[in-house]
Design brief:
two-stranded antiparallel sheet, alpha/beta, Isopropylmalate Dehydrogenase, Rossmann fold, ten-stranded mixed β-sheet, 2 domains
């Protein structure tokens, strides 16, 4: 039987950075719990959740370790099934997205994922795209909210980007017609368009959002984007309490730069959503402070949407904010709302104080310094 002191069950050897951070998390967990060793102590160690863990590439293991440390400091415990993906998985197992990883997520219904690098122009197909398709994670959710203490051009931004995740130009249907001429097919279906529209309206109703803006290019792509827009309008009729309008994608980008606070929720097709969600992240300080989730009917994968940053990997200076906020979304999904709010409040406090910040935020703190400051603020 596994003792309560052991590290999470792993399907691969944990990288050194992740093992070190896990070690620190155990120290902090016991240190914080020690003054109040009551009956709740045993309850804290009941493993109510089994979660697939993908540390990722580059700085992934470092920000993943920091995130797990903070989760444990709240008393959250889970059995983690750990896997590698991408180039390392390809070299070790012959597939950048091993089948046993897919099986683990299907079994656990939930995963936490660090950044995974994708070769540009050549090499294997994006593991991120394959993962979404394999698990039918049709909704990409990107909350965009200003954080005090994070340098940005705007204040008081609070909007949500919802992106259809399974089709459009990301269907990967392209071929060379004749030498020098390549054709890519844009796939838009009634089923996927209605499903993502319903997801957006249900989220708006649950979270108290007031308006959804569908973003499109139906003035030019009258059939494909026209279908997406028509489905949105028809689904909107079932939610009369939520305002619904639409905007052409290029105008949306301009309006976001001029006055982002005019938007509440944005609903977009796959390609537009990929671009606009990153644009929105830039409005609040960048991808390093923006959480993300990919959600299906039964399965959800919560992830940092920034890159693997191989240039700073292993140096202990990475900012774990994006993955930590993604873990906050995960906790809410698991009905662990109290712990989620504690972490978010602690993070916001550390950022607002501005005393312990990583280099990308204008400070000199290491990943460990930043993580310790958040844990002390819980």
């Amino acid at each position: 039987m596994r003792s309560r002191d052991q590290l999470p069950t792993a399907r691969c050897q944990l990288p050194a950075a992740l093992r070190l951070s896990a070690f620190y998390s155990l120290i902090y967990h016991y240190k914080l719990a020690a003054p109040s060793m009551t009956a709740s102590y045993q309850e804290a160690f009941i493993l109510r959740h089994k979660i697939t863990l993908i540390p990722g590439d580059g700085i992934g293991p470092e920000v993943t370790g920091a995130t797990i440390s903070v989760l444990r400091a709240t008393g959250f415990e889970a059995e983690w099934e750990t896997f590698v993906v991408g180039a390392e998985a390809l070299s070790r197992f012959g597939d950048p997205l091993p089948e046993n990883l897919i099986d683990s997520i299907k079994r656990n219904k939930i995963a936490l994922k660090g950044p995974v690098a994708t070769p540009i122009g050549t090499g294997f197909v994006s593991s991120n795209v394959r993962l979404r398709k394999a698990l039918d994670l049709y909704a990409n959710l990107r909350p965009i909210k200003s954080l005090k203490g994070v340098p940005s051009r705007y204040e008081d931004i609070d909007l949500v980007v919802v992106r259809e995740n399974t089709e459009d130009l990301y269907s990967g249907l392209e071929h060379e017609v004749v030498p020098g001429v390549v054709e890519s097919l844009k796939i838009i279906t009634d089923k996927a368009s209605r499903r993502i529209a319903k997801f957006a309206f249900e989220y708006a109703r649950r979270e108290g959002r007031k308006k959804i803006t569908a973003v499109h290019k139906a003035n030019i792509m009258k059939l494909s984007d026209g279908l997406f827009l028509r489905c949105f309008r028809e689904v909107a009729e079932d939610y009369p309490e939520i305002a619904a309008d639409d905007l052409i994608v290029d105008n949306t980008c301009m309006q976001l730069v001029i006055n982002p606070t005019q938007f509440d929720m944005l609903l977009l097709e796959n390609l537009y959503g990929d671009i606009v969600s990153d644009l929105c992240a830039g409005l609040i300080g960048g991808l390093g402070v923006a959480p993300g989730a990919n959600i299906g009917e039964e399965i959800a994968v919560f992830e940092a949407v920034h890159g693997a940053a191989p240039n700073i990997a292993g140096r202990g200076i990475a900012n774990p904010t994006a993955l930590l906020l993604s873990a906050v979304l995960m906790l809410k999904h698991l009905n662990e709302r109290e712990r989620a709010l504690r972490i978010q409040a602690a993070l916001e406090k550390v950022l607002a104080e501005g005393k312990v910040l990583t280099r990308d935020l204008g400070g000199q703190a290491t990943t460990l310094d930043f993580t310790e400051a958040i844990i002390r603020s819980l």
